[in-house]
Structures are given as structure tokens and as C-alpha cells.
């Protein structure tokens, strides 16, 4: 494999730091070309001192001086602000961009990277939820590959080589069910953010951990799968699998099913996105069947966790509805994390925002930006009505 220069957008986050672990173990294969973080200047500086990238961007402009001064002796270029995050991906020397910023904030830089013909390792699922049609079209026009990092989508992707033109009949995205699996709406009325932030199988950033507890994460993943694998909503099913060993399943036209399995560890899908189509050696812990004598499956409880149904609704409505769903959810999760609303009220904010927003189709980029903005205003009003 030719050595790859990688730009890591969101290097200070859960995916970003695990990506750096993968790179650290394979310095002969990868170079860190760019590091981008939001506001954790101390960690960003530490990472830059270790990996010596060409350039570093800190989104939070108030931290510019601190980063600049620390990295000056190392001859590392330092930029700050949202526009720089978007523009840095244009650098000639970048081969692959890891999109690991969380939320809508990751959209502009990913789109710009695609426009500049950079292949994408995609962790930021919100990009495809917000503007999947636009992103897929641009990727096709620019011959850009989008390698999924999300474990479920990586699993599907890993089941496809060798299948040629064989059609996918259906996919099954597995869901752990999160910390509240088996609970009733009554049980969930007063759950705290500390309880919601305790995921049974994965350690992740705060937003996706809350999304996992509310099943919105699986809803976003259904939409993400539609765009990655060109599927109809009825071809995408969700099955709860509490052990998170089978990461997802593809069913082909003859009914045969292929699954990808292993211990829950994001480093594997990150590494595969970096090395595809090759598999390289690593020392990640191996799965032992006897540690897991029972792999179990159950139906997702969409009466308790409304978000999954809301995401399917948004997907079948199409146009800007998934963008509205995503914006409302980002506002709702933020409000929940700030103790402004209760756990179950997050779905209420999303539902009401979807009902009150204007449904449009055939949008361009500006149309999605406008949708995101107006949906956030409506969602914030919904939050203030519910405020506890
Ligand atoms: P995180 O909160 O741990 O990290 C987010 C990163 O984005 C940080 O580096 C932060 O500095 C950066 N960031 C945030 N806002 C920014 C902005 N405006 N400009 C520039 N940088 C900004 O989140 P995470 O858990 O690493 O998740 C990242 C993405 O990957 C999310 O879209 C998530 O859904 C997806 N994902 C994560 C996991 C996981 O295991 N953590 C698994 C699958 C998918
Ligand atoms: Mg996932």
C-alpha cells in the first residue's frame, strides 16, 4: 500500500483519538497531514507535537494564539475558525480525509473535501442524514470513495467485496439497545443524563452516546445506510443485539445472509476505512466464542423509543425532512445535556419540529443550510415551551 497522507477532522474526539492510535501503530503506512479540533487546544497541541502534521486548525478562534505559540518552533502551520476548517481539506498533499467532527458542523468540510476529490473515511453520519442526496451525487461526480467508519456500515461494506453486481435484498443494522433497553416510558420519565451517558458496550462522544440511549443513533444510521448503499427504506431493518458482536448483516437475493462480527472496537472500522481493500495486522483483542455463548436478538421497541420511527418517517418523506430531524435532534440533545428538558421530551422536540417545519424537495446546499437554521429556531422554541 502506498503511504497515505490523512487529514483528521475532529482529532480530539473519540473517533479522532482512536484514529491516531491506528496511525501510531502503522507509521510506515500513514502520515498525519492535518489535525482539526474544536476547542481542546491542549490535546490538539499534544497531538501535533507527536504527529508533526503539516497544518493544524482550531475551530475556536479564541484558542488561536495558544496553539500558534506552542507549534511555532515545530514549523507547523496553524489556522483558526470555521472557514479554515472548511478550507484546510483542499491541501494538495491530502489523500484521505477522516470526517470525525460531530453533528451538522461536519457537513461543510466534508462537502468541500469531496469537491476537491479527496476520498473520505466517514464517521460523521450527520453529513449523510442532512444532505445525503447532495453528498452522494457530488461523490459520484468527483469519483470520490466514501469509506464508512460507523461500525454497522463498515460491517455491511465488509460483506460486499466479491459480490459484484449481486443485489442486496435487505440489510439488518444491529443496535445494542443502549442503557435503557427493556425500559418502559414510565421508567424513562426521570432518567438522568448520567444514566443516559453510560453506554453498555461503546465509549463514545456525548452526543452519539445520548443518541444511542434514545435510539436516534440507529435512526440516523438507517438514513446513513440508505445513501451509502443506495437502498430503499423498506430494505433497511433494525435488530436489537445487546452484545454488539454482530455489527450488521446483508441479505442477498437468494436469502443468504452475510454478517461481520468481532469485539466492539471502533479501531477496526477506522483501520479498514484507511486500508481498504487491504486488511492489515493489528494487536486488537480477538473475539472468543466461549466468552459469548449467547448472542441474542430482539425487536426494537419503537413505542418506547419514538426516535427510530421518526427517522423512518423523515427518510420516507425525503427532501429536507431528515435535515429537519437532525437539526431538531441536535438542539434536543444539547438541551437534555444542559438539563433543560427530560429524556423523553427529546422525541417531542423532534416530532413537533418536523410537523412545524416546511417540507421541501430538490434542495441545493444553501437550501439545506437554510433548513438547518430554521429548524433549529423552531426546535429551540419547542425546548423553551417544555423547559423543566
Ligand atoms: P466527540 O464529541 O468525541 O468528538 C467530536 C470531535 O469534533 C472533536 O474533536 C471536536 O473537537 C470536533 N468538533 C466538534 N465541533 C466542531 C466544529 N464546529 N469544528 C471543528 N471541530 C469540531 O464525537 P465522536 O464520538 O468522536 O463522534 C464523531 C462523529 O463520529 C459523530 O458524527 C458520531 O456520530 C460518529 N461516530 C462515532 C462513533 C464513536 O464510537 N465515537 C461511532 C460511530 C460514529
Ligand atoms: Mg454505529
Oligomer: single chain
CATH topology of the domain at 4-148: Rossmann fold
In helices, the fraction of residues equals 40-55%
Ligands bound to this protein structure:
nicotinamide-adenine-dinucleotide, magnesium ion
Give the H and E element order: EHEHEHEHEHEHEHEHHHHEEEHHHHH
Residue stretches low in confidence (pLDDT < 50, at least 5 long) are none
Discrete helix count = 16
In short:
With 388 residues, this protein is of the alpha/beta class. Helix content is 45%, strand content 15%.
Key features?
single chain; 388 residues; alpha/beta; Rossmann fold; seven-stranded parallel β-sheet; four-stranded mixed β-sheet; 16 helices; 45% helix; 15% strand; binds nicotinamide-adenine-dinucleotide; binds magnesium ion
Folded structure, characterized:
- The protein is α/β, with parallel strands linked by helices and 388 residues long.
- The protein has a domain at 4-148: NAD(P)-binding Rossmann-like Domain (Rossmann fold), CATH 3.40.50.
- It is 45% helix and 15% strand.
- It is built from 16 helices and eleven strands.
- The chain has helices at 14-24, 41-51, 64-71, 82-88, 107-115, 126-141, 151-159, 185-188, 193-196, 206-214, 216-229, 267-275, 306-317, 321-337, 345-356, 365-386, and strands spanning 4-9, 30-37, 55-58, 77-80, 96-99, 119-122, 146-148, 168-175, 236-240, 246-252, 257-261.
- A seven-stranded parallel β-sheet has the order 4-3-2-1-5-6-7, sandwiched between helices. Strands 9-8-10-11 form a four-stranded mixed β-sheet, covered by helices on one side.
- Helix 13 packs parallel to helix 15.
- The longest helix has 22 residues, at 365-386.
- The chain is globular, with a radius of gyration of 20 Å.
- 48% of the residues are buried.
- It binds nicotinamide-adenine-dinucleotide (NAD) and magnesium ion.
Amino acid at each position: 500500500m502506498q503511504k497515505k497522507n490523512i487529514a483528521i477532522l475532529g482529532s480530539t474526539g473519540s473517533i479522532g483519538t482512536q484514529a491516531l492510535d491506528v496511525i501510531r501503530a502503522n507509521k510506515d503506512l500513514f502520515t498525519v497531514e492535518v489535525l482539526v479540533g474544536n476547542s481542546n487546544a491542549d490535546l490538539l497541541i499534544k497531538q501535533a507535537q507527536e504527529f508533526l502534521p503539516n497544518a493544524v486548525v482550531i475551530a475556536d478562534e479564541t484558542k488561536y494564539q495558544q496553539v500558534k505559540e506552542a507549534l511555532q518552533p515545530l514549523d507547523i502551520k496553524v489556522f483558526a475558525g470555521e472557514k479554515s476548517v472548511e478550507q484546510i481539506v483542499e491541501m494538495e498533499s491530502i489523500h484521505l480525509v477522516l470526517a470525525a467532527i460531530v453533528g451538522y458542523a461536519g457537513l461543510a468540510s466534508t462537502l468541500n473535501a469531496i469537491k476537491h476529490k479527496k476520498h473520505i473515511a466517514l464517521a460523521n453520519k450527520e453529513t449523510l442524514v442532512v444532505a445525503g442526496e447532495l453528498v452522494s451525487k457530488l461523490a459520484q461526480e468527483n469519483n470520490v470513495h466514501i469509506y464508512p467508519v460507523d461500525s454497522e456500515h463498515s460491517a455491511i461494506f465488509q460483506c460486499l467485496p466479491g459480490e459484484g453486481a449481486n443485489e442486496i435484498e435487505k440489510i439488518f443494522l444491529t443496535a445494542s439497545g443502549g442503557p435503557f433497553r427493556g425500559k418502559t416510558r414510565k421508567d424513562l420519565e426521570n432518567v438522568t443524563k448520567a444514566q443516559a451517558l453510560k453506554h453498555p458496550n461503546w465509549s463514545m462522544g456525548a452526543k452519539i452516546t445520548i443518541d444511542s440511549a434514545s435510539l436516534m443513533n440507529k435512526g440516523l444510521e438507517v438514513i446513513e445506510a440508505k445513501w451509502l448503499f443506495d437502498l430503499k427504506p423498506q430494505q433497511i431493518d433494525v435488530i436489537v443485539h445487546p452484545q454488539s458482536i454482530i455489527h450488521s448483516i446483508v441479505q442477498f437475493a437468494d436469502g443468504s445472509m452475510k454478517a461481520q462480527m468481532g469485539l466492539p472496537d471502533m479501531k477496526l472500522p477506522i483501520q479498514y476505512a484507511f486500508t481498504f481493500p487491504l486488511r492489515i495486522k493489528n494487536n486488537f483483542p480477538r473475539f472468543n466464542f466461549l466468552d459469548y455463548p449467547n448472542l441474542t436478538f430482539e425487536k426494537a421497541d419503537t413505542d418506547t423509543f419514538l426516535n427510530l420511527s421518526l427517522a423512518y418517517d423523515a427518510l420516507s418523506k425525503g427532501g429536507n425532512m431528515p435535515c429537519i430531524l437532525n437539526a431538531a435532534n441536535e438542539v434536543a440533545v444539547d438541551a437534555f445535556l444542559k438539563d433543560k428538558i427530560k429524556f423523553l421530551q427529546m422525541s417531542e422536540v423532534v416530532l413537533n419540529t418536523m410537523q412545524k417545519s416546511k417540507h421541501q424537495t430538490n434542495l441545493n446546499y444553501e437550501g439545506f443550510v437554510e433548513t438547518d437554521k430554521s429548524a433549529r429556531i423552531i426546535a429551540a422554541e419547542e425546548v423553551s415551551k417544555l423547559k423543566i
